[in-house]
Every structure is written in structure tokens, then in C-alpha cells.
Design brief:
It is a single chain. The protein is globular. The longest helix has 32 residues. An 8-stranded mixed sheet has the order 5-4-6-3-7-8-2-9, with helices on both faces. It has a 7-stranded parallel sheet with strand order 1-12-13-11-14-17-10, sandwiched between helices. Strands 18-19-20-22-21 form a 5-stranded mixed β-barrel. 45% of the residues lie in helices and 17% in strands. It is an alpha/beta fold and 763 residues long. β4 and β5 form a beta hairpin. The protein binds cytidine-5'-diphosphate (CDP) and magnesium ion (MG). The site of magnesium ion has 4 residues, from α7. One of its GO terms (biological process) is mRNA processing. GO terms for molecular function: ATP binding; hydrolase activity; RNA binding; RNA helicase activity. It catalyses: ATP + H2O = ADP + phosphate + H(+). It is an enzyme of class 3 (hydrolase).
């Protein structure tokens, strides 16, 4: 796959360079450096002298520590003049010049669509204008939705800064499992998913007097559903004002959807951007991007920052790391500040992209398509566009959503190029040919509702009382086979009955802000008497990476990790880590002492922030469980119950071992392997049957987060789909002899599928 070569080569190099890199890491941890390491260290000092020119603000503790001093100096001088500057900057934004007309339009119309280039001030200013208009006391809250978590947090912080208030007071944000709002909050940023969930408990959205649906052009699934929900609400609530914003010119579609509501254009202030296509299609887009960055850096004067569009954490890290290496090969180049940004990156590192680079250095931001419209960074003069993005797409072969590498659309390509022309004339380098652009790229992007699984949305709509899904007002209807498929999935989890109506189980599932199978796992845990354990596992599955594998300390971290592995299950491994972490915290006198907890995490290469988040998520889920009146019992050491619970919720995603290393999925018979990062793979224990949490596609299909199951459980929980092929054999799981001969067949689910869809008014 394109781009994978640089990633692979980078990984290998990283492994080879382990010796010297280890020294750096230990040095930072304050550990003793031995003689051998000292020698290595001296050998690398020339390298480091060069590295000082390369400010790689990466996730590594090493980089962060080395350069934080530098950034701190910067920060102090910034803060002094920041406030005055911020107000001045607000007045310079294009939206400021049209403020009065815009506010009048919003006052006079229930729904207004606002179109403006990225960076014109829609996200940061609109809510503030409304707030100021109502003299700081709007009747209800001003809600502003964002399709992305990172954006919701970052713009809330920015607006709080602009208003000189502490985040969480007047201005706050809510994203899943994280609520930074209070009784005082008047402006609330949130993900679109949060507002959609709020309609479950507050169907008229009475808390709000203004709803800004930001970034509508992204056409995220939740935004699309909100469109339909809000269209009904504004018909009933005359006092509600809805503002829809878009960075692209597709606004007429939004306007038409809301009964031809007015469209307001914020005059753009853009500079010309020269666009260059690649003459040939590069063999490896990540490598091509690195080369292009270096070429600009060497040839073009500083400043003039560079924005590189990659697809995800992997290629971003590879590009950042390789850039740092290439910098080392140069004789005293101008300093370069390398900044990755992707959704799983720690929030404090994400915020760094907005900081001005140190005097005389160049900022290189390597981003996912989050920087396409959601986040605007000033000072970008060069854009390098890989032409790819990762998109959540329903994969019919494996029967689930997957993040796939896809070519971007022409509209996206234009958006990306536009990022270079905000503050002055810019240049955009496309790492693909002009022919590829015209012939292979779609004109516009396919809305998420038409390409992903809809299970949680179907369940949500059903619980809102919309039983006939096809009568719901969609801006673009989802393909009916997608709806049918999602209903089938929900039916297998007993969330819908044979008639396609929501069941009591389904209603309980909706109460959790989780994907239906994860909710099913909690409910199963409650039933089997291991809810406490399932809460932990679900919480651990809902937070970013638990096990850290820092660059240069791969062996140590792998060794540390080994101690936690539970051979037969990744789910149990997570449980084990969490229980060890809790018991460690408990032994330190006063409850959870963050200091000890941090030290423990560092020692074991565990992500301390993720552990704390998991504890918080767990607490929230436990509250919901209590509200549902379900017991939160623990099964103690009886971990078989835990595996049963996992199996009950995930029997649909089961696989059988085919040979020494390979498995076949029971549901659709495709070959797959246990992910090398899995506890099962690491302990060399590959059971005959397992269930998996998700599939990751790289060169192969990998099942990640797996748990060994007894085939008899599959037949028990998945009775509608599985049966023993040879029914004369004993079904008793305790009968080991019989079990080894047992085989499963997946029954044809199509029949069930036909039944459930025909009775739900889909046709
Ligand atoms: O939403 P839209 O793309 O129209 O613009 P915006 O996100 O409101 O950004 C307006 C200005 O605020 C831009 O110049 C951004 O660079 C700046 N901004 C910032 O400096 N820091 C942030 N965290 C967010 C925005
Ligand atoms: Mg915006």
C-alpha cells in the first residue's frame, strides 16, 4: 500500500537505533547512565547537536521535555501581549465586517445558513456575537456543535480565552465522557453526537435558545440526523434560532432542506494559491511529502509555515520522525518545529499547533484532515496534500465499519489548497497527478450516512419513537440495505424484536453513550453477575492507547507489558491492568494519589492519562447502570464469566482457527489473523475459537482485542446463527474430547434479515 513503505522503514530504523535512543530516554527519566551508554551517548552527541535544530513536539516524553523549556519562554512573552492582540485579531476577521447584517438576519429568521471560508471566524465568533447581542444573558444556552472532538475542545478553549473567562464557566464544552460545563455555562461547544443524545432526554432542546450547527459541510452522520430532528423542533418552537454554517458552497442544499431559508455569504479574503501537481504518481506518498517539505525548507526563506495532509497517526508519526532525521543530515539548516496533529494526540500537544514558532524557525504541521476545515492555523504558506484520507466506511466483506485509506474528493483537495492562501499568497503541492485529480477523484465527498453502519443511529431514532425510518426527513437517505443491515445487527443483540420494534433491552442499550455491542456487554455482565468487571473493560476500550511504546524504548515497554498479559484474552488483560492500577492507588494512603499513580504508570509504560480517563468513564457508566436499576456485582476471580459476557455481546464477531496462525470469520468466512499486539499473539496462545472487538486492515486483516471462547457458548448465545455441525456429538463444554471434534456452521442470516426488514416498513 502506498505510504506503508516509509512507515515500515521508519519502524525498522527506530528498532535498529534502539541503543542510542534508549540513552536519551533514560537520561530523561533521571536513571543512572552506565559506561556503555555514556559511550553511545558521546557517539550520538553530534546527532543531538543537529537535533537541536529540529524541534519535534511529538508524543515522546523525550521531545516534550527537551523543548518545553524553549516553548515556555515563548509562552511567557506571548501571554503579556496576548489579550490586546486577541481583541485586535477578532476585529480583523472577515466576519466582523458583516456582523450587524448577520445578527439581524439571525434575529429575523428561524434558520439561517452561513457560508464562509475557513478561518473567516464562524466558529469562534458567531457564538460570541450572539452572546454579546443578548448582553450576556441569552434565555437559553447557545449550543454549537462540531463533528470532531478535537475541534470542540480546542474552539471552546479559544473562545474562553477571547472572552477572558475560565473554560468550564460561561464557556464550556461537552464531548463523550467529558463534561466541562457548569450551571453558569451560556456558550456550550459539543460534538454533534452529544446534542443528538440530548434529544433523548430533552426532545424539544428547551435548554437552548440558539443552536449553531457548525461544519455542516462535513456531513457527519450525527449532523445529518440532527438536521432532521431540528427541522421538526423549529416548527414547534418559535423561539429557537438555528444557524447552520458551511465552509463550502453546497449551502443551497441546506437551505432547501430548511424550506429555502436565507443564505448569508461572509465575503472571503483569500490570496491566490499556486497549485502544483506531481508529474508521476509517487510510489510512497509519505516519502514524497518528506522530500517536498525538505525542499521547501532548504529553498524558501523562513518564515512561511508548511501544512502537510497525511491520513492518520501512523503516517503522521513516520513523516515527523523522518523529517527529524533528514534535518540531522543537513549542515546547520534553519530550525524546524515539527508538530503532529491527530485526534488521539494528547490535548496539550494538540494545542501547540496554534503557538507561534520560535523566531527564525519554520513550523511544519503534519495533520489528518482535521486541519482541512475544523482547525485553522495562521501563517501557513505551503500546503502539501497527500491526496488521501482515512474514512469510516462500511466494509461488506467483513460486515463492519472500518477506517479505510481513501482518495479525497476534488472538493477536499480545493479546501486543502485554500489553507495556503489565508494570510498571503501561497503554494500547494499535490502529491498526485493532474490526471488523477480530474479522472479519479470524486467531485464531492460521500456523506457519512451513505457509507457507514447505522446501528446506533437506528436504535436512537427508534427510541425517539421514529419507528418508520424511511419516513424520517433525511437530507440524503441512507441506502436501504444499510438500514436493513443495521437492523439485523440490532436484532442479533436483541435490541429489536422480530417486528423491528425496540425491545426493553434496546431501550437500556440506548441509555449508554456506547456502540450497541459495548452496551450489550454491560447488560450481559449485569445479568451474569460480573457487571463490575464489564464496566472496567468497556471503559478501558473507550479511552486512547493504554500501553505506551515510546520510540527508543520498545524492548523495555514490551517487557513491562508482558507482565500484564492474560494469555487467553485482551479484554481480561485490560481488566488486569486496571485492577493492578486501582489496587496500587488504594494502597497509597489517601485514595488515588495521582503522584504515585503517575510513577507507577511511568514504570510500567502505561498511559497515565488514559487510566484516569478510564476511571472517569467507568464512573459515568456505573451511574447509568444504577439509574437503570441494575446491580453492579463483581465475579471476583471467576474470569470465565467475563469471557462469557464478552462472548454474549460479540458472538457475531467470532472466528475459528484454520491452521497454525490463521483464522476464518464464522460469519462471512474471510481469512484473518490475531493482531500482533494482542495478548493472545504475544503469549503464543491461539485458541480454536475467539471473538474479536474490531478488525484492523493493513497488509492483512487483523483481529484486535480478542478473547478465547468456548464454541458451546457461541451456540448458546448465537443460537439463531450457529449450530454444531455434527449434532450427535456432546454439547457439554466440559467434555473436552467432544469439544475438539466440534465444529460450527453459521446459518444463513439472510432469512432472518428478510423477515425483520419486511416487517419494518422499509419497502
Ligand atoms: O470557523 P472558521 O473556519 O470560519 O474560523 P475560526 O475557526 O473561527 O477561526 C478564526 C480565527 O481564529 C483564525 O484566524 C484562527 O487561526 C484563530 N484561532 C486560533 O488562533 N486558535 C484557535 N484555537 C482557534 C482559532
Ligand atoms: Mg470553523
Amino acid at each position: 500500500r502506498k505510504g506503508s513503505e516509509l512507515i515500515a522503514a521508519f519502524r525498522e530504523k527506530r528498532e535498529r537505533a534502539q541503543g542510542s535512543a534508549k540513552v536519551k530516554y533514560w537520561k530523561l527519566e533521571g536513571a543512572q547512565v552506565g559506561a556503555k551508554e555514556k559511550e553511545d551517548h558521546e557517539r550520538t552527541s553530534r546527532r543531538e547537536a543537529h537535533e537541536r535544530h529540529t524541534l519535534l513536539a511529538d508524543t515522546d516524553a523525550f521531545k516534550a521535555a527537551t523543548f518545553s523549556a524553549h516553548l515556555r519562554n515563548n509562552e511567557n512573552s506571548n501571554r503579556a501581549s496576548a489579550l490586546g492582540e486577541i481583541q485586535e485579531k477578532r476585529r480583523q476577521l472577515p466576519i466582523f465586517s458583516v456582523r450587524d447584517n448577520l445578527m439581524r438576519l439571525i434575529r429575523e429568521n428561524a434558520v439561517v445558513v452561513i457560508v464562509g471560508e475557513t478561518g473567516s471566524g464562524k466558529t469562534t465568533q458567531l457564538a460570541q456575537y450572539i452572546y454579546e447581542e443578548t448582553r450576556g444573558s441569552p434565555r437559553g444556552m447557545i449550543g454549537c456543535t462540531q463533528p470532531r472532538r478535537v475541534a470542540a475542545v480546542s474552539v471552546a478553549q479559544r473562545v474562553a480565552d477571547e472572552m477572558c473567562v475560565k473554560l468550564g464557566r460561561n464557556v464550556g464544552y461537552t464531548i463523550r465522557f467529558e463534561d466541562e460545563t457548569s450551571a453558569e455555562t451560556r456558550i456550550k461547544f459539543m460534538t454533534d453526537g452529544i446534542l443528538l443524545r440530548e434529544t433523548l432526554t430533552d426532545p424539544e432542546l428547551d435548554k437552548y435558545s440558539y443552536v449553531i450547527m457548525d461544519e455542516a459541510h462535513e456531513r457527519s452522520l450525527n449532523t445529518d440526523i440532527l438536521f432532521g430532528v431540528l427541522r421538526d423542533i423549529v416548527k414547534r418552537r418559535m423561539d429557537l434560532r438555528v444557524v447552520v454554517t458551511s465552509a463550502t458552497l453546497d449551502a443551497h442544499k441546506f437551505s432547501a432542506f430548511f424550506g429555502m431559508c436565507p443564505i448569508f455569504h461572509i465575503p472571503g479574503r483569500t490570496h491566490p494559491v499556486d497549485t502544483f501537481f506531481s508529474r508521476t504518481l509517487p510510489h510512497d506518498y509519505a516519502e514524497a511529502a518528506v522530500r517536498q517539505v525538505m525542499q521547501i525548507h532548504v529553498q524558501a526563506p523562513v518564515p512561511g509555515d508548511i501544512l502537510v495532509f497525511m491520513t492518520g497517526q501512523e503516517d503522521i508519526e513516520a513523516v515527523c520522525g523522518t523529517l527529524a532525521e533528514r534535518m540531522m543530515l543537513l549542515e546547520s539548516p534553519p530550525p524546524m518545529l515539527i508538530l503532529p496533529i491527530y485526534s488521539q494526540l494528547q490535548a496539550d500537544l494538540q494545542a501547540k499547533i496554534f503557538e507561534p514558532p520560535p523566531e527564525g524557525s519554520r513550523k511544519v504541521i503534519v495533520a489528518t484532515n482535521i486541519a482541512e476545515t475544523s482547525l485553522t492555523v495562521d501563517g501557513i504558506q505551503y500546503v502539501i496534500d497527500s491526496g488521501y484520507c482515512k474514512m469510516k466506511t462500511y466494509n461488506a466483506k467483513v460486515g463492519m465499519d472500518m477506517l479505510l485509506l481513501c482518495p479525497i474528493s476534488q472538493a477536499s483537495a480545493q479546501q486543502r489548497a485554500g489553507r495556503a492562501g489565508r494570510t498571503g499568497p501561497g503554494k500547494c503541492y499535490r502529491l498526485y497527478t493532474e490526471l488523477a485529480y480530474t479522472e479519479e477523484l470524486h467531485v464531492g465527498s460521500v456523506p457519512e450516512i451513505q457509507r457507514t453502519s447505522l446501528s446506533h443511529i437506528v436504535l436512537l431514532l427508534k427510541s425517539l419513537g421514529i419507528s418508520d425510518l424511511m419516513s424520517f426527513s433525511f437530507m440524503d437517505s441512507p441506502p436501504s440495505e444499510n438500514v436493513a443491515k443495521s437492523m439485523l445487527d440490532l436484532w442479533t443483540l436483541s435490541a429489536l424484536d422480530d417486528e423491528g420494534r425496540i425491545t426493553d433491552t434496546g431501550r437500556m442499550m440506548v441509555a449508554f453513550p456506547l456502540d450497541p455491542p459495548l452496551s450489550a456487554m454491560l447488560l450481559s455482565g449485569a445479568k451474569l453477575g460480573c457487571a463490575s468487571e464489564m464496566l472496567t473493560i468497556v471503559a478501558m476500550l473507550s479511552v486512547p492507547t493504554i500501553f505506551l511504546r515510546p520510540r527508543g524504548a520498545e524492548q523495555q515497554s514490551d517487557a513491562a507489558r508482558e507482565k500484564f498479559l492474560v494469555a487467553e484474552s485482551d479484554h481480561l488483560t485490560f481488566l488486569h491492568v486496571y485492577e493492578r492500577w486501582r489496587s496500587m492507588s488504594r494502597t497509597s494512603a489517601a485514595g488515588v494519589s495521582t503522584c504515585d499513580s503517575a510513577a507507577w504508570c511511568r514504570q510500567h509504560f502505561i498511559n497515565a492519562k488514559s487510566m484516569q480517563r478510564a476511571a472517569e468513564v467507568r464512573r459515568q457508566l456505573q451511574d447509568i447502570l444504577a439509574q437503570l436499576g441494575l446491580a453492579c456485582a463483581s465475579c471476583g476471580a471467576n474470569w470465565e464469566l467475563v469471557r462469557r459476557s464478552v462472548c454474549e455481546a460479540y458472538f457475531w464477531q467470532a472466528a475459528r482457527r484454520r491452521n497454525l496462525v490463521e483464522y476464518t470469520s464464522l460469519r462471512s468466512n474471510f481469512p484473518c489473523c490475531v493482531h500482533p499486539g494482542s495478548a493472545l499473539a504475544n503469549s503464543g496462545y491461539l485458541p480454536d475459537y475467539l471473538v474479536y472487538h474490531e478488525l484492523i486492515m493493513t497488509q492483512k486483516e487483523y483481529m484486535s482485542v480478542c478473547t478465547q471462547v468456548d464454541p458451546a457458548w457461541l451456540v448458546e448465545y448465537g443460537a439463531r446463527f450457529y449450530s454444531f455441525r455434527d449434532s450427535t456429538r456432546s454439547l457439554r463444554p466440559s467434555d473436552a474430547g467432544a469439544r475438539s471434534g466440534v465444529d460450527l456452521v453459521a446459518q444463513d442470516g439472510a432469512e432472518a434479515s428478510r423477515y425483520i426488514t419486511s416487517s419494518s416498513k422499509l419497502d
